[in-house]
Specification:
168 residues, mainly alpha, Ferritin, 5 helices
Length: 168
Amino acid sequence: MSIKLESLHKVFVAQLKDMYSAENQLLEALPKMAEAATSAKLQQAFGEHLIETQEHVRRLDEVFSTLDFKPGGHRCKAMAGLIEEGEEIINEDGEPEARDAALICAAQKVEHYEMATYGSLRAYARVLGLDDAHKLLTRTLQDERNADSTLTDLAENAINKLAMLAAH
């Protein structure tokens, strides 16, 4: 992190920068995941989350506009690693239904990383008295929870069963 972590405010800014990088990396990865998916519903879920991710970046820009910091200058290594795992799945040979199941797992790893970070950011904003940031981060956290729930529903109610049947 390029900011000395000497106060909660600086931790908040450092984690905001990390999330800004993560969301922007995800903007590049989601179309690839949607293209690799064979399930129309999974493609749709990735497409809808791409639109939400664009809104998440906009919200982060709004939070940064209230602070004395700029969003760039940092690369989220955790998201880079998660995206690399997703790219490995995309490039693997195998049954399309099994790939869809693996793509859901990769996407849920991303969602859980985002939920953990947004949860902390929201808590920091509350303690710091940054009410507008708290509201924006709460909305984004709920979006991430909804995306995770959508992926779980797709996996449990369709994709995992299709992947199991493909092996027989």
